[in-house]
Amino acid sequence: MDTQQISAPSRASSGVVHDNSRHTSRFTVVGNHLTQHRELSLTAIGLAAHIQSLPAGARIGIKDLAARFPESEGRIAAALRELEAHGYLRRTRTRLANGRIVTRTVSCNQPSDQRRTAALPGRDCPQRTVRPPTPVRPCTEPEADDVHPARSRPRTHTKPAPRREPTPLLVPKPAFPAASLLRTATDLLAGLHHQDPRLLLSAQDVDVLAPGVAAWLEREVGPSAVEHALTSELPAEGLRRPAGLLAHRLTQAIRTSVPY
């Protein structure tokens, strides 16, 4: 009686197998440094690939992207901040000849180390802000969004009063600032304006406050409990600096070890 021979399964069957076809039109070249990035979230990687595939002049505002994809505005805003932190996006404010202020976004398909901005809070990279040099790699300028009318200024010859700089925001830090923890904190802060429109925070304020929220999440306080602590019993009037109020609540709560 013949013995049946059983061959060992191919090693390739345990992993991905590529069935590739050569593109001759409608394709975009995306580097593996982006698609296999170790620190970017999957949302940020996919968003960067989408932006790089768009023609110059395409609108990539948060509301435009939220209307195109199922992700929330908060999640898209967090992904854009990730790309900006790692040099795949550069956003600068410019005053036009008519007095309007616009935010211009530059998408870079291969950012250099000199072009990267400060690292996200909690990362091992030192936090620094580098002025971007004259572009030497191919970039596209997809849009000019967030148009704001210039504030009217009274014409006067009197010397303006010196501007008072706001007090720096100080918040507690997590003991182990994991990237996933900071992403959850960032998404939470970016979505607070849904509870109260006055809590619409700038990208800079979100980056500063995120470690404080992460410190509470690290203590196994759920995101809904943190959101309630930050948004409950807000003052009816006088909320001129929402980021300052949130920083105060995060600091006071961590000192007493009791959430609001």
List keywords for this structure.
Arc Repressor Mutant, subunit A; 2 domains; 3-stranded antiparallel beta sheet; 34% helix; 10% strand; globular
Question: What percentage of amino acids are in beta strands?
Answer: 5-15%
- Identify the CATH architecture of the largest domain: Orthogonal Bundle
CATH class of the largest domain: Mainly Alpha
Q: Which outline best applies? A: globular
Structural class: alpha+beta
Major beta-sheet overview: 3 strands, antiparallel
In DSSP terms (H or I, runs of 4 or more residues), the helix count works out at 8
Number of domains: 2
CATH topology of the largest domain: Arc Repressor Mutant, subunit A
Number-wise, the strands total 3
Q: Helix coverage percent of residues?
A: 25-40%
Mean pLDDT: 76
First-to-last CA distance: 79 Å
Strand and helix order: HHHHEEEHHHH
Estimated radius of gyration: 23 Å
Spatial ordering of strands, largest sheet: 1-2-3
Ranges where pLDDT stays below 50 over 5 or more residues in a row are: 114-152
Give a short synopsis of this structure:
By secondary structure, the protein is α+β, with helices and mostly antiparallel strands. The chain has helices at 32-35, 42-53, 62-68, 73-85, 179-190, 203-218, 223-231, 242-256; strands spanning 89-95, 101-108, 139-148. The chain has a three-stranded antiparallel sheet.
